[in-house]
Write a structure and sequence with these properties.
Its main location: membrane. By secondary structure, this protein is an alpha+beta fold. The chain has 10 helices and 12 strands. It has a 5-stranded antiparallel sheet. Strands 7-9-10-12-11 form a 5-stranded mixed sheet.
Length: 461
């Protein structure tokens, strides 16, 4: 993956740590590179000024010798401090030209008869510095100045020094800066990673605290969070408390409504049964319908309240064993055989009362419509679409089963496929609603025992 793909990838957009790290790395690299260029430039300027000072000292010596020559003394270039002016083609040269004609009057022994084309210097009395190529292709640092002797004669004086030493010093300094900054960059990268991990650690603690709430190990976010994210933790705790209060309020309202309607409806049904005639029969039918609708509405209100419950965690095995004991006593005359295959302890993100209702309805139907044998098995599975982990509970019986059309009808509220068996027809539909609310799945199929197989998928912990 290239840098362009990395910066535009979903990982870059979704990862706060990656964005912070990459931005810090890019900024650090750019800052170090700019600092290195500036430092090398400053060092070169300093080294260049130092070389110019050496050349100016030699130029001043030549100027003094010219004044002495005007008084009749010979021009003493040998008096210059730099011994390189005597070595042939050393890269250190001087020459004096006639300021008017440009003819070379004197030159250093180091030129060894070679020519040094320095051009004409402006007669403004200022020192002019520049680079040019000397004998043998060597780069020279040159300073020139037009000097007017007391007799009025003008001399174009030029002093040149080998720039190779200057370039070598700059290269050495550049390498030192590169090595130093490379070591500094490694330490800086380590500091960046440490800073990002340390800075984002409170978010990891908040995520762990939220996981504890979801797993039922805590009822609120606990921990000492920084002031930047502490308001978020407080808002989440307030939301959790508001949801819990809404659940309790919905449950209380549902219970009050059930008690308020239960007695009047029972009176209507009982009175209708004592009367004969089509009117009484019609009232009885409508009262029964009202009972189904009221149960339906109460169940929907309870489900809506349960949907807002956070941190609900239940053990599937203990729920199954408790329901199995109750059903064996309830169907003691049929000697129901309930086999539970449980490889290990499994927990789901479902309230215990809802889990008991889901499994209780399914197992009760298996007992009613089976022929005395039930097998309950559990396994873990991961959704290929969402990546979430589920516990799959399979309930199989050895009854006559259902056709494909009947399986669809069985999930409809209030529909009963076998009128000979008592019931309201709400069992599987309630199971379907509960499972759907918790983000699970419910499938009906054929059992290896010959009857119906109900597969329930619930989010695992």
């Amino acid at each position: 993956m290239g840098w362009r793909d990395l910066f535009h990838s979903a990982t870059w957009k979704r990862s706060l740590a990656l964005r912070m790290t990459l931005v810090a790395i890019v900024w650090s690299v750019v800052a170090l590179a700019i600092s290195g260029v500036i430092l090398v430039g400053l060092f070169r300027d300093s080294a260049e000024r130092h070389l110019d000072d050496r050349l100016k000292t030699s130029l001043d010596g030549l100027a003094g010798s010219l004044v002495a020559a005007q008084r009749g003394s010979p021009l003493e270039g040998d008096s210059l401090a730099e011994p390189e002016f005597k070595l042939p083609l050393s890269g250190w040269y001087w020459l004096v030209k006639d300021g008017r004609t440009g003819i070379v009057l004197w030159s250093s022994d180091s030129l060894y008869g070679d020519a040094l084309d320095v051009g004409n210097t402006p007669a403004d009395g200022e020192i002019h510095a520049r680079y040019l190529e000397g004998p043998g292709g060597v780069q020279l640092r040159v300073i020139s100045q037009v000097i007017t002797a007391p007799a009025g004669t003008g001399y174009d004086v030029t002093v040149a020094g080998n720039a190779a030493q200057l370039n070598a010093e700059v290269m050495t300094f550049r390498q030192s800066v590169f090595v130093t900054f490379a070591v500094f960059a490694i330490g800086l990268l380590a500091a960046i990673f440490f800073q990002v991990r340390t800075g984002l650690r409170p978010l990891s603690r908040m995520r762990a605290a939220l996981a504890d709430v979801r797993n039922g190990e805590s009822d609120r976010l606990t921990g000492d969070f920084p002031i930047e994210i502490n308001p978020l933790a407080q808002e989440m705790n307030a939301l959790i408390e508001a949801n819990l209060k809404a659940v309790e309020r919905a449950r209380a309202n549902a219970g009050n409504l059930a008690h308020a309607l239960k007695t009047p409806l029972s009176v209507i049904i009982n009175e209708s049964r004592t009367e004969k005639g089509p009117f009484a029969q019609k009232v009885l039918e409508q009262a029964a319908t009202m009972r189904v609708r009221i149960n339906d509405a109460l169940e929907q209100a309870r489900l809506a309240a349960e949907r807002r419950v956070l941190g609900a965690v239940s053990d599937v095995g203990s729920s199954l064993k408790g329901i199995a004991r109750v059903l064996k006593r309830a169907y003691a005359d049929r000697e129901i055989d309930i086999e539970i295959v449980m490889p290990k302890e499994m927990r789901v993100r479902v309230e215990r009362s809802d889990l008991d209702e889901i499994l209780g309805n399914v197992l009760d139907n298996a007992c009613k419509f089976g022929n005395g044998r039930l097998r309950v098995s559990m396994e873990e599975s991961r959704s290929s679409q969402t990546g979430r982990d589920f516990v799959i509970v399979s309930v199989e019986d050895n009854g006559r089963g259902l056709t494909e059309a009947d399986r669809k009808t069985a999930l409809q509220r209030g529909r009963r496929l076998d009128e000979s068996v008592p019931g309201s027809g709400l069992g599987l539909s309630i199971v379907h609603d509960l499972v759907e609310i918790y983000g699970g799945t419910l499938d009906l199929g054929e059992s290896a025992l010959g009857g119906l197989a109900v597969r329930i998928g619930l989010p695992s912990v």
